[in-house]
Design a protein that fits this description.
heterodimer, A: alpha/beta, Peroxisomal Thiolase, Chain A, domain 1, 2 domains, 7-stranded mixed sheet, 6-stranded mixed sheet, 10 helices, 34% helix, 24% strand, globular, B: mainly alpha, 79% helix, extended
């Protein structure tokens, strides 16, 4: 049964298992350092669809069906689906998942959605409310650009702090038993806003939220950063992860060499012209549902803190000069044998 | 010890890498200059072919706009602009790109509410304020002429 520990952490005594997982990505992500870990790389980022929104839905379907197949389950066996993306009214998820007939709760936590959906899936399974849940999220560079920034062919320059929205989707099927990676706990984050207004520097906007959630988790569980094999944030990228190190140190939890960020792993920043690194809810989803869970299954990593980070702004709020509120949710993953 | 907003924005300022302003300026100067030189070449060529200066200038503008629109449609313009910055933004080519790129992007929402309506999302303000100020200047000029 889920039990609250400390202030905001939920421990899951039955330790729900990730029974199957899959990540599918676009061309640029496939060319990145993690290329060989992904289940499928789409050289054509339209995925043969007429619009970018449809392409993102197709990306999500692909990740979902592959994860279900790997878990050896069919959609009819799923109790609940938690899905989300970055588009208005979460249309990539709703249109992507509409054909499966699975009860669904659409989620929006900006780029933190993978951690959010995974935490909810695990809490539902651990409480007995569900036997089988699936968490799936996506982002697509082209659908995100047209909604949040400029048309693709517009000739503009991106500042050094800008991040590249990953064209990627990841899905994780959560149930009981099996030898897969277990979910031991989750910490739901608070909205944190230290007044960053630059939508081209989302890493900086999200870092305080990540620092807050991490500190809350360490306090709630009476542990420290060194107790974990890896602490990995979703998409703080170069600027945000640097700031998180500074903030965490100030809070008394200095992060060592065991800290990294999915936005830094997914691209080669020296070669791929992505400026500060990757972002988007597909970024953390794809890194989690390929490289990270793979390393845990192989036993290379035993205890991992996965922190999804989201910048909760919209084009409207940015145009109105509002600062960018950040949010971060944490999921504590442990390898099957641990 | 909690970090205050002011303190954090200072930390961000120190951490965030700056844009390479000097490099960007040099690139913008060179590429922007090249576009303008190309314009002058067109004007001279057209004049040599026997046209008046006024007509030659008009043909130059039309040629540059067409070139920019075609390069935008073939996914080339944004790759030049990535390096050129203001060098491709300031000349008339930048204006053409600002119209054509949303037209391509929002075609998926239909020819009316997509292509036609969104075509001016970037260039619209330039038109509104550009036309307004030209009217104002015209009025002022006429007033001065009236009392001279």
């Amino acid at each position: 049964m889920p039990e609250r520990k400390g202030q905001y952490t939920v421990t899951l005594s039955s330790r729900p298992t990730i029974l199957g997982y899959a990540a599918v990505v676009g061309k640029r992500e496939g060319e990145g350092p993690l290329g060989r870990y992904f289940d499928m790389i789409f050289e054509d980022t339209t995925l043969g669809e007429k619009t970018w929104e449809k392409a993102e839905s197709a990306l999500q379907r692909e990740a979902f069906t592959r994860a279900m197949n790997k878990a050896g389950m069919s959609p009819s066996q799923l109790n609940y689906l938690f899905a989300g993306d970055l588009l208005n009214q979460s249309i990539a998820s709703t249109f992507g998942m509409r054909e499966y007939g699975v009860p669904m709760l659409g989620q929006f936590g900006a780029c933190s959605t993978m951690a959010q959906t995974l935490a909810l899936s695990a809490i539902f399974v651990d409480s007995g409310a569900a036997d089988l849940c699936c968490a799936v999220t996506s982002s697509h560079f082209c659908s995100a650009e047209r909604q949040f920034r400029f048309p693709l062919e517009y000739g503009g320059q991106r500042p050094q702090t800008a991040q590249w929205t990953a064209t990627a989707s990841g899905a994780a099927v959560v149930g009981m038993g099996g030898s897969g990676v277990k979910i031991a706990a989750a910490t739901i984050g608070r909205i944190t806003d230290l007044g960053i207004t630059d939508a081209n520097n989302m890493g900086a906007a999200m870092a305080p939220a990540a620092a807050d959630t991490l500190a809350t988790f360490f306090q709630d569980t009476a542990t420290k950063p060194d107790d974990y094999d890896l602490i990995i944030t979703g998409d703080l990228a170069a600027v945000g992860s640097d700031l998180l190190r500074q903030l965490s140190e100030r809070k008394g939890y200095p992060l060592g060499a065991n800290y990294t960020d999915c936005g830094l792993l997914i691209y080669d920043r020296n070669k791929q012209d992505v400026h500060a690194g990757g972002s988007g809810c597909g970024c953390s989803a794809a890194v989690l549902c390929s490289y990270l869970l793979g390393k845990m299954e192989q036993g290379e990593l035993k205890s991992v803190l996965f922190i999804g980070t989201g910048a909760l702004m919209s084009p409207t709020s940015s145009q109105q000069g509002e600062s960018i509120p950040g949010i971060a949710h944490l999921v504590h993953l442990v390898a099957g044998g641990a | 010890m909690e970090v205050t907003g002011q303190e954090y924005r200072q930390m961000n300022k120190q951490t965030a890498p700056k844009s390479p302003v000097l490099k960007n300026c040099i690139k913008a100067f060179l590429i922007g200059g090249l576009i303008c030189a190309l314009g002058q070449v067109i004007v001279n060529l057209v004049q040599n072919a026997g046209m008046e200066l006024k007509e030659a200038r008009m043909i130059c503008s039309i040629t540059l706009i067409a070139a920019s629109a075609i390069l935008t449609a073939f996914n080339v313009y944004d790759n030049i602009a990535k390096h050129a910055g203001a060098g491709t933004l300031v000349p008339i080519t930048g204006f053409a790109n600002a119209i054509v790129s949303p037209a391509i992007e929002f075609k998926s929402e239909g020819l009316i509410v997509g292509l036609a309506a969104k075509m001016f999302t970037i260039a619209g303000p330039v038109l509104v304020y550009g036309i307004t100020t030209s009217i104002l200047y015209g009025l002022i000029l006429n007033l001065i002429k009236l009392f001279r």
